[in-house]
């Protein structure tokens, strides 16, 4: 389950932002990225139903899993593969029903390699980006934009975004790693401004009776 946690935190971000200066910017790509970013940042919250596909050519393996995530600012609630992860910006609860356990840990953005709420602003620091053309996805025309990290030690050498020409929404993206593995994320359903309140991003123990609580703080 731990590997799912690591992979799925990439749902809305993909890689650690590199600390680099003088990033090369393609004006055409930047205009599209700015429009996409503005669209999502204007929302109080959003919910995404997704499918993640992991491909490993060397192992001749391919695996897909589906789930959903609700995001509001730096808070999120993720459900996938029998696991739930709740982050209220200060504390993270990882709920594993099959194992009968919930772990509690501090949320430290400086120590997190991946966070789930930065995909829409990822390009703004530490990345080159270029317009790579136009394709069709599900019958819809999409812009294709490639992001390349300035930090050459980054194990992800490219992130390819598919952005709707119609409404600037992010339709899918794909991470390319140096070891040959590929991680694809397809958005199946998008709900803008779903109802959220103070309880949405907090672990309610009464709803998870019988689980062992492991506090790692």
Automatic annotation (TrEMBL):
Answer yes or no on keyword Signal.
yes
* Entry annotated with the keyword Membrane: no
Per UniProt, which keywords does this protein have?
Lipoprotein, Signal
- Kindly give the InterPro entries that the UniProt entry links to this protein: LolA/LolB/LppX (IPR029046), OM_lipoprot_carrier_LolA-like (IPR004564)
**Signal sequence, renumbered to the chain:** 1-20
Q: Tell me which domain of life the UniProt entry assigns to the organism this sequence originates from.
A: Bacteria
Spans traversing the lipid bilayer? none
Q: Which PANTHER family match?
A: OUTER-MEMBRANE LIPOPROTEIN CARRIER PROTEIN
> What is the name of this protein?
Outer membrane lipoprotein carrier protein LolA
* Species assigned in the record: Rufibacter hautae
Where is the organism placed in the taxonomic lineage, from the top? Bacteria, Pseudomonadati, Bacteroidota, Cytophagia, Cytophagales
């Amino acid at each position: 389950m731990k590997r799912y946690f690591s992979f799925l935190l990439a749902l809305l971000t993909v890689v650690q932002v590199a600390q680099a200066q003088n990033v090369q910017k393609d004006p055409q790509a930047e205009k599209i990225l700015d429009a996409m970013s503005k669209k999502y940042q204007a929302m109080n919250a959003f919910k995404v139903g997704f499918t993640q596909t992991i491909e490993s050519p060397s192992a001749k393996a391919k695996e897909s899993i589906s789930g959903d995530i609700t995001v509001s600012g730096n808070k999120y609630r993720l459900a996938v593969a029998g696991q739930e992860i709740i982050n209220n910006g200060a504390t993270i609860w990882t709920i594993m029903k099959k194992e009968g356990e919930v772990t509690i840990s501090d949320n430290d953005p400086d120590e997190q390699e991946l966070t789930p709420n930065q995909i829409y602003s990822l390009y703004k620091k530490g990345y080159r980006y270029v317009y790579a053309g136009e394709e069709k996805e599900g019958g819809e025309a999409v812009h294709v934009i490639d992001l390349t990290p300035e930090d050459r030690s980054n194990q992800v050498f490219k992130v390819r975004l598919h952005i709707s020409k119609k409404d600037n929404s992010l339709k899918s993206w794909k991470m390319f790693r140096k070891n040959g593995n590929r991680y694809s994320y397809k958005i199946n359903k998008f709900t803008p401004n779903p109802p959220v309140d103070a309880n949405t991003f907090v672990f309610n123990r009464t709803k998870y009776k019988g689980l062992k609580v492991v506090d790692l703080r």
